[in-house]
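Protein record

Derive tokens from sequence
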Amino acid sequence: MKSIITGAFRNKAAIIICILMVLVMGVFSYTKLPMEFLPEADNPQVTVSVIGPGYDATTMEKSVTDPLEQALVAIKGKTDVFSTSGDGFSQVNLNFDSKTNMKEAKTEVERAVNAVKLPDRVSPPYIVQFNTSMIPISFVTLTFNEGVTDAQKEKIEQRVYDEFRSIDGVGQVQLSGKSQPKVSITPDLAKLAAKGVPLQALYGVLQGRETSASVGESILDGQTVGLNVTAKLKDIEAVKKLPVAEGVLLGDVAEVKIDPDVESVNRVDGKDALQLVVSKGANSNAVKVGEGVVKAIEKINTEIKEANMKLLLSTSDQVVHSVNSMMREVLLGALFATVVILLFMRNVRATLVTVISIPLSLAATLYLLDMSGITLNILTLGGVAVAVGRLVDDSIVVIENIFRRLQKEAFSKELIIDATREVSVAITTSTLTTVAVFLPMSLLRGSLQSFLLPFALTMTYALLSSLVVALTVIPLLSSGVLKNSQIKEHKPSKRFTRLLDWNLRHKWIPIIGAVILLFASIATYMSIPKGAIDQSSASNLNVTLEYQADTPVAQVRENGLKLESTLMKLDGLDWLSMSMGNSADAAKYGSVTSPTIVTYAIQMKKGADAEKIIDAVKAERANYPGADLSAGAGNMFSNGNSTQVFVDVTGDDLNAITKTADDVIAKIKPIKDVLKVQSNQEQKKTVYTLEVNATEAKGGDIATQLQGMLNPFPIGSLNVDGQSLSVLLEPSLNPKTESDLSSLTVMTDKGPKSVSSVAKWVKTEQATKYFHKDGKSYVRVSAAVEPSQLSIVGAEIKKQLQDVKPPEGVKLNVGGASADQSADMSSLFMMMLVSIGIVYLLMVITFKTLKAPLAIMSSILFVPIGAVLGLIVTGVTPDFTAIFGVVMLIGIVVTNAIVLIDRVKHNEEKMTIREALLEAAGTRMRPILMTAIATVCAMFPLVFSTSETGSIVSQSLAIVVIGGLVVSTVLTLVIVPCIYELLYFRKSARQRKAAATALREVAAQ
């Protein structure tokens, strides 16, 4: 270490140049680093979604889900496969182990799925593998003026889509609510019968009517010319004049019209609208993409007068806000740390020398982050905010030791070098142990590693930079700044020395007291409810209107518009959006839902009372009988399941697992803080199944005929005003009653017959959703839980399920937020144990003994006392981030003990153990208190700030770190010396006995 310190003095000019370079590169890196909300991380899941309008859940399960599952059986790396089949949609989710290359996994899934033959009228499978870079950057709406034709709308939609796709850095542009006008042909059965025209004649009415073909070449007037044939139907009137039989036109026997249909309902502030959801590409700057979106909106609004675009929400603004707010907390933390140093040192020059480590370390950290390809996000900035208090720790120890030596010795360069060398081992070891705490994060897998690793690297870069600054820049500046400084002597506290002496003489009393507090704090923590990371935002509200699956879609839409009108009259709304139905673009992102659900997103005005609006929505429930109307604080990043506990009932017998699921629901419902319990088997739908007598008719032929008679049938396409329109033959039959079904006529090998003569309709009640796990049916019971009571409710559910005795072959599996929380907690606890092992190994290497590191490690035992005390005093519910705070404290608290014991070891060369402990504690008390208080003060801004969604740097983490550090610092100064002497009890006793004997001999003389 001495060579590094003396090297800095021999190369002063080089050090000055390095300081300037680091500062410039840090500023440059800050402006260059891409800004995003969260670091890029792959979700180890691939989702396959299929839309099948008009198909019920049973048909989707058998015709779509089952073939897809069979095709995906051989996919490598998958851990399990979950699927959901509902009315009009099917979705298969494949989960993969953490080692799987997700891009290769997605490609393999695409190959398998594309080989599956799916039924007619269902969409192609949409395959998506989620990544945090897909988090939307902007939500934009597009509305049209009155009188704009469908053809104009389609052209404008394409122009808007192309404009947004051309933005530099854009990843995906999702367009929902696109207009899909079609030509609708509705046959009149009475007119068909009167004219003697069979219905089948309408199926080929467009066949061969339109063409564009080259038929060859010929020589005309001595010149070679090409010969083409074209035929076009230019408008609806031309379609009506198409002949369907001799002397009969299509318009004579059917109604032909353009139906201005849309694929899904999207409305904003009471007007039909298209919604564009823009996400950034990988490694793109979210802020730059957001700025590009704003420019594109301005350009389109200027150039296209028939349409209007509006930016509803921009997460890039939130990125800027989170970056700026976190930087503000970093600067406040640095200011508080500076004030603490000034109060302790009572010397402006020494304070300035110490504080220089903050900007230098931050600049170096930003440069290293840039070189590592890590973005500027709430996790990396959170790491800086947490590290800012530790950035001055090493410099404080160095400057304090120099300061202390200058109180008694004459100023010289050699003194500065020797004073720095004296503490160099201690600060190097303490920094390396703190860094070592974050090494086990590389052992974590999946998204947990993706989120924690950028945080850990930020902390590591910051701490190592501060160490280099403390060993080179601080002594160099001290030699110049403190040369003629008036330094007042600071003596060790006599009261503290007497207190420690008493504790050493009665060491079992403080040790037993600390152990009692430790066990009490652990017991208290076990009884405290653990919550989920808070993802709600009072500025956003979500409202859901959900009807039974057998409710007609037209009725759902009518009531959805009625509720929209009611919501728009409420005070405090900035904007309101309404959505209903599935769209191809949404399915591409794995978003498929029941067609009987209407969702509303509300943006609140600043200062508006969200609770008042939630209560007003709930008061409307009586006006929507048969519907489930819910409202609550929402967030666009929440998947809706963040505080749900799932109980999956699996088995081969659907009746047995359904009965077991009912028993599970009965056990869960009475549990306190369970807000709602439901299962996918609760919603039933009436289904009529035609059981065909196979000896009388062919079931396949009848199914084909009925599909054609009861559903729209595509018969071609038409180009009108440059717009391509699908032509659909509407259902010829519209049965209203059960008797209408029985009177249907179908063609058989023996001619036309009534359905009732060859088959019978069987009425059953079937579930509206079917869940599969690894190809087998299962029932999912989902319990919505009060977020702050997640751990307690999860534990109580497991306890209650012990009383459920499922039949043979049926199993219960508890999952959801509670299980995810337990898994994450287990990963962190395992990481904590590995960190402790690495820290202990480093200290054994440093001190070359097993006992001294044990005394240092004992300081970790005091962490839970302060952490739990902090949570109790503040009333904050601990979550995942609180446990992460405890992991951080392992590296932070041992630094104080290392500084103390390092001094003790030096003292033992010329003192007894008891004297060495008393002198070291008195001497090191000042730097230990300074570093601890500086770290605590630097963390205070985080306590009073609002943490960003998804950030691990939360109020809970800050409180745990502050509480744990305060209590651990106090106990380190008192208990660690007691434990150290206890470990060397015999040697210390012999020394004290020898010293007492020598004292008696001197007295006798």
About this structure: DSSP finds 33 helices and 31 strands in the chain. Residues 446-481 form the longest helix (36 residues).
